[in-house]
User: Which sequence fits this backbone?
């Protein structure tokens, strides 16, 4: 029972990390209609900038702003130099251009920062445990990550439902004229939103620094899962990204946690272990397929 | 008949392919042939992908899956043959005329299932879902220990072609070139047939085609399967050329590269994808030989093509209005 | 004899908006039945339900006596329902003749024919050209769609629908965006067609409606306010208030 | 258009023009992984090889050499393409550099069929160590199983009775578990297979905690290994359950990137920075000076590979076709950074394996410290099937 609870927490934690990545991606798509394959690169840039700052200053608390700033700045630059030219274009051009960006960023990081994975330590304040239930300690850092994820979700919800920017965002990409008629500089708004998406990716990057490997290509490892999340949730919907992240994060974690165990109850040991491993690595794709069979536009389809 | 610019360049491309073996003799190196064979194989994939992306407006980001399925079909039958367990109880699976159609069938079957699900969606969903399905197959092959997992599977020898050995580089090149020619001819005929008109019409206006009474989904699915089969043939050829397959054949990066080829060459043209495949392989191989940081040059190059030359190299070469 | 098109109690809501509110309508074979209504009356939603692009929440649709409520768009089209689009939906990059030939091809059954060049197939080209001739576009046959004038595209819209040789022709604002001269030409063409075809005409242009329609239904706020002869409708007080009085025309 | 890059050591050029005997340099094709997350492995192997060459002034074993280097992108097909090019265009006969087994499996047959020689600086897949061994195929690093056999031996030596084993769900991972079990002999409570690109291991760690083993063996090379160690520490398991790993899951770069999370982990390796022999001290010093970073086990293997090639070239007088090259190779008459070394009958190493522990160094950084010998002059299980 305690194991189940712990695994649920693990699933929730993975979900919230996925949400940070998915929120930025889906925001950018929902508002500007751009698919950004290089979203994972922004995550990598956040992590590298964070690791670099942590190494220079010796504290995670400066790494955090450094990572956020780097990702947001690179994101803004990306929007101004490249993405801006792609709004009116087909998804195909966007896929291609941002594919080129992935290659560039991977090459650039390898060239400038070297190929070694970088060190990034857990901040000492968060290196301990919290006993959530008697006999169930949980790493403080992971709890903190969950807190950040929830805070970001709430913040985004507030921004979108209560603020002027949120209203503009809700107006969506197809109502450009309307937004412009309100006297909004749409070009600036887009740069801002793109930078915000990048910032969220950077936030995810810095935060996973202490628990994952900071290295070239780390963005692509999470990119496809993030896509699965937003497809399941409904591309362009923040609510969908949240639901999708929960579904995918939970299925992935619980699949890895319990599928091999269940298989073991009616298969021999090694076979069950192997099959369980294979099954849990494709489980999120199966979930996605199932969702799309029932709802081809995701759980929270966005009109238009 | 007046010769258009497209016509001229098409002939130039064809002559270049025909001249390869002579160039190899002149240079005294078979590498030109090996490289041209690779170009021909990738060109088949690019042509098949253009049928979807260029002609049908279906941006498949998982085309490597069918390429890989085709390759694995050949490799797995060879593997069973080598281990004395022919798959279907008979030993002819080393014959190209059996193994290659089998590869096409397997790839086409995969495309049928993936397409049937993916085509329910459209636009960016379609891009993502094809990507995700290909990724799923990739992970499956990685986990498939019996067939080598991520180490892949080696073929001890190339298939026989109508009973003849095709280990000679030139022979194999001619076979691949013929396969490319057949695929080009087929795709040209298909695109101008009634079937092709429905596909292209639906790409231009799906609503119109539905209102006329075309169940567009079925036509697209058929196109998806045909393209998957062509990619499967290319995969079979690739497996034969390298005498090796690995899950890397199905990776999403490769799917992305196929898209780059098609767009770099020029969408919705007959020869464009062929030019794109050639340009892609030459540029990539030149760059990665030139600097270990090739990605820093190649990435921006891809980006520039996407932003400034959406009609691709072929689009820039050929005259306006030509098809 | 069953009606060409019969709607029974159709309802469709989008959120709290009732776009179609219990609409029942009977279009007799051979008549030209106009549906008019102010902007936002629910005409587009109604057309969508008739063609099959929109599923009704409740109600029943019968074409030529067959219940087609759950049929797909293509299936309804093949059973004899042709439509034109308010905003032209022509296949760009194709010639006028190609566009008409699509319709002929659809009518001839499935198109799983992969090798023969369809552009050299007289069984497609000839009927397509006939349809173009019918709307006076024969001399534009080989022009690409995007090079045609707006009026010509509207005519081509009609030609494509005619090439389907439908039993029922559903015209969605065929006069939209036309100048007076082009409009008159279109009315002439439609008058010729109307003699041998059932037409459902959804139109804004009142002159055209009163020139062509045998009967008129007025749609207001998703519901049918009145159905009757053009003269009846024209003199109806409520219609005047709801629609004509508000005076778009 | 020559599609190649020639990393021609400047010194080689000098000796080329100055030397009285205008001997053609021997071309060495180094196809290795420089991009992707695995790029640092190839970088180190390449730099190790190049260091050995530059120390000798562009020669190996007194014979001038010229290197060609290209990135295989961890794609077997690309690697094959590069090798084909070098065989055909540049007439390269001697190859090295390959890091990953899946690349080796694809490429090695082409090299051997062309009459070429391959000396592996890292990959030692079982495919070519048994029945399919070849007289022109040498592995200077290890037979892949050795890594995990030594870890198994260490676990046995440390007295662990019940263990949980983890590895990625692909070939190398499954080989790791097989190899480990071969020498371990104790009870395996559970085998857990992880995903190829998996970055979060919390679910697995909860399973391990629930299984309550004496110790854990895990095989996650590169970035996955770093993530695993960090999360292991964070889950508080580091102080509860001992961990045994093989060299690829705890080498110098991983230790540096994992930081404190690596401390206390027991690993096995056949080389370490602190090996006390003259060759190694010179190598470590030279590597630090030239590249301004710590060498890894991959760098040492690259260096040793070059040294072995040098010994063979010296014996054959720079001829590759000669049987003398092979005789020189097999004799391995050269001192390597890792100490005693000889080739087995299947041309894979017989060497010593040591316990390696990550400890906090005097400067606060993590260093790897060599402990006792775990396996002495250890060969591999496949050699008996090899008939050359």
Assistant:
């Amino acid at each position: 029972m305690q194991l189940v609870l712990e695994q649920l927490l693990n699933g929730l934690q993975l979900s919230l990390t996925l949400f940070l990545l998915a929120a930025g991606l889906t925001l950018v798509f929902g508002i500007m209609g751009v698919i950004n394959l290089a979203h994972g690169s922004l995550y990598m840039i956040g992590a590298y900038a964070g690791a670099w700052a942590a190494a220079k200053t010796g504290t995670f608390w400066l790494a955090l702003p450094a990572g956020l700033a780097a990702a947001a700045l690179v994101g803004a630059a990306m929007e101004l130099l490249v993405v801006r030219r792609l709004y009116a274009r087909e998804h195909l051009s966007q896929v291609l251009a941002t594919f080129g960006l992935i290659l560039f960023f991977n090459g650039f990081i390898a060239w400038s920062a070297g190929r070694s994975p970088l060190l990034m330590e857990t901040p000492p304040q968060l290196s301990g445990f919290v006993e959530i239930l008697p006999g169930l300690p949980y790493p403080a850092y992971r709890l903190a990550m969950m807190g950040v994820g929830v805070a970001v979700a709430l913040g985004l919800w507030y921004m979108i439902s209560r603020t002027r920017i949120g209203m503009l965002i809700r107006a969506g990409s197809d109502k450009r004229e309307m937004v412009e008629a309100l006297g909004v500089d749409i070009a600036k708004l887009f740069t801002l939103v793109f930078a915000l998406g990048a910032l969220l990716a950077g936030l995810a990057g810095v935060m996973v620094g202490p628990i994952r490997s900071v290295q070239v290509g780390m963005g692509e490892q999470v990119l496809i899962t993030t896509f699965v999340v937003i497809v399941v949730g409904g591309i362009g919907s923040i609510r969908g990204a949240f639901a999708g992240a929960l579904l995918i994060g939970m299925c992935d974690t619980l699949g890895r946690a319990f599928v091999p165990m269940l298989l073991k109850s009616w298969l021999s040991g090694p076979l069950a272990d192997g099959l369980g491993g294979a099954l849990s690595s494709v489980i999120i794709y199966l979930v996605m397929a199932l969702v799309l069979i029932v709802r081809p536009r995701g759980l929270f389809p966005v009109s238009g | 008949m007046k010769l258009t610019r497209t016509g001229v360049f098409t002939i130039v491309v064809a002559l270049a392919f025909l001249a390869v073996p002579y160039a190899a003799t002149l240079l005294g190196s078979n590498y030109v042939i090996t490289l041209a064979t690779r170009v021909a194989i990738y060109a088949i994939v690019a042509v098949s992908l253009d049928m979807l992306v260029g002609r049908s407006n279906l941006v498949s980001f998982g085309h490597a899956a069918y390429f890989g399925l085709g390759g694995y079909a050949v490799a797995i039958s060879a593997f069973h043959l080598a281990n004395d367990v022919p798959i279907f109880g008979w030993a002819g699976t080393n014959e190209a005329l059996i193994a290659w159609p089998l590869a096409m069938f397997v790839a086409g079957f995969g495309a049928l299932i993936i397409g049937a699900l993916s085509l329910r969606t459209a636009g960016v969903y379609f891009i993502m879902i094809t990507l995700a399905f290909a990724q799923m197959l990739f992970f499956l092959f990685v986990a498939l220990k019996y067939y080598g997992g991520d180490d892949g599977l080696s073929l001890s020898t190339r298939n026989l072609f109508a009973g003849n050995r095709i280990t000679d580089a030139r022979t194999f090149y001619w076979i691949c070139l013929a396969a490319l020619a057949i695929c080009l001819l087929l795709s040209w005929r298909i695109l101008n047939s009634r079937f092709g008109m429905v596909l292209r019409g639906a790409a231009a206006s799906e609503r119109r085609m539905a209102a006329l009474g075309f169940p567009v989904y079925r036509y697209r699915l058929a196109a998806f399967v045909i393209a998957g089969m062509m990619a499967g043939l290319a995969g079979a050829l690739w497996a034969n050329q390298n005498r090796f397959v690995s899950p890397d054949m199905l990776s999403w990066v490769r799917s992305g590269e196929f898209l780059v080829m098609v767009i770099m060459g020029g969408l919705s043209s007959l020869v464009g994808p062929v030019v794109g495949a050639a340009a892609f392989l030459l540029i990539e191989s030149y760059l990665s030989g030139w600097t270990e940081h090739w990605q820093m040059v190649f990435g921006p190059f891809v980006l520039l093509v996407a932003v400034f030359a959406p009609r691709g190299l072929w689009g820039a070469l050929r005259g306006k209005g030509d098809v | 004899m069953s009606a060409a098109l019969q709607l029974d109690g159709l309802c469709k809501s989008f959120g709290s908006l009732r776009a179609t509110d219990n609409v029942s309508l009977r279009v007799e074979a051979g008549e030209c039945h106009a549906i008019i209504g102010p902007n936002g009356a629910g005409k587009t939603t109604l057309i969508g339900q008739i063609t099959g692009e929109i599923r009704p929440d409740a109600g029943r649709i019968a074409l030529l006596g067959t219940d087609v409520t759950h049929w797909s768009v293509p299936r309804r089209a093949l059973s004899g329902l042709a439509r034109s689009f308010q905003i032209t939906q022509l296949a760009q990059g194709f010639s006028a003749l190609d566009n008409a030939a699509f319709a002929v091809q659809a009518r001839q059954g499935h198109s799983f024919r992969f090798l023969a060049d369809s552009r050299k197939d007289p069984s497609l080209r000839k009927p397509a050209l006939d349809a173009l001739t019918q709307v006076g576009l024969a001399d534009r046959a080989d022009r690409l769609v995007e090079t045609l004038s707006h009026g010509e595209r509207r005519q081509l819209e009609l030609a494509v629908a005619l090439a389907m040789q439908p039993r029922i022709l559903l015209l969605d604002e065929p006069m939209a965006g036309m100048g007076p001269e082009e409009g008159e030409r279109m009315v002439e063409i439609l008058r010729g067609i109307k003699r041998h075809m059932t037409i459902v005409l959804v139109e804004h242009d009142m002159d055209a409606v009163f020139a062509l329609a045998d009967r008129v239904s007025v749609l207001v706020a998703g519901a049918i306010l009145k159905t009757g002869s053009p003269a009846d409708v024209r003199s109806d007080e409520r219609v005047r208030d709801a629609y004509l009085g508000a005076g778009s025309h | 258009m020559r599609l190649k890059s020639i990393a021609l050591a400047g010194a080689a050029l000098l000796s080329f023009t100055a030397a009285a005997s205008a001997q053609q340099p021997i071309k060495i094709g180094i196809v290795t992984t420089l991009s992707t997350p695995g790029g640092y492995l190839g970088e180190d192997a390449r730099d190790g090889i190049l260091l050995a060459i530059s120390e000798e002034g562009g020669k190996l074993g007194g014979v001038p050499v010229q290197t060609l280097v290209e990135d295989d992108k961890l794609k077997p097909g690309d690697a094959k393409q590069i090798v084909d090019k070098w065989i055909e265009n540049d007439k390269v006969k001697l190859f090295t550099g390959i890091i990953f087994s899946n690349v080796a499996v694809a490429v090695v047959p082409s090299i051997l069929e062309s009459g070429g020689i391959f000396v592996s600086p890292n990959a030692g897949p079982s495919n070519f160590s048994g029945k399919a061994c070849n007289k022109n195929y040498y592995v200077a690093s290890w037979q892949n199983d050795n890594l995990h056999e030594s870890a198994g031996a260490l676990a046995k030596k440390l007295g662990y009775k019940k263990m949980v084993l983890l590895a990625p769900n692909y070939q190398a991972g499954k080989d790791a578990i097989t190899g480990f079990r071969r020498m371990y002999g104790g009870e395996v409570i559970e085998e857990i297979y992880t995903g190829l690109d998996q970055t979060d291991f919390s679910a697995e760690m909860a399973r391990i905690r629930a299984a309550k083993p004496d110790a854990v063996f895990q095989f996650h090379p590169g970035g996955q290994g770093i993530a695993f160690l960090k999360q292991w520490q964070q889950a508080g398991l580091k102080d509860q359950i001992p961990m045994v790993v093989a060299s690829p899951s705890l080498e110098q770069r991983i230790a540096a990137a994992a930081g404190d999370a690596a401390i206390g982990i027991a690993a096995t390796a056949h080389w370490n920075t602190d090996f006390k022999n003259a060759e190694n001290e010179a190598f470590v010093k030279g590597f630090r000076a030239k590249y301004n970073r710590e060498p890894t086990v991959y760098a040492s293997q690259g260096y040793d590979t070059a040294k072995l090639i040098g010994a063979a070239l010296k014996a054959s007088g720079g001829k590759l076709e000669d049987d003398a090259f092979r005789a020189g190779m097999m004799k391995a008459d050269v001192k390597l950074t890792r100490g005693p070394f000889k080739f087995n009958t299947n041309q894979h190493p017989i060497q010593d394996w040591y316990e390696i522990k990550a400890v906090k160094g005097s400067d606060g950084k993590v260093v790897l410290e060599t402990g006792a010998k775990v396996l002495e002059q250890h060969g591999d299980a496949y050699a008996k099937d090899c008939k050359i």
In short: Chain A is about 75% helix and 5% strand. Chain A touches chain D through 53 residues (CB under 8 Å).
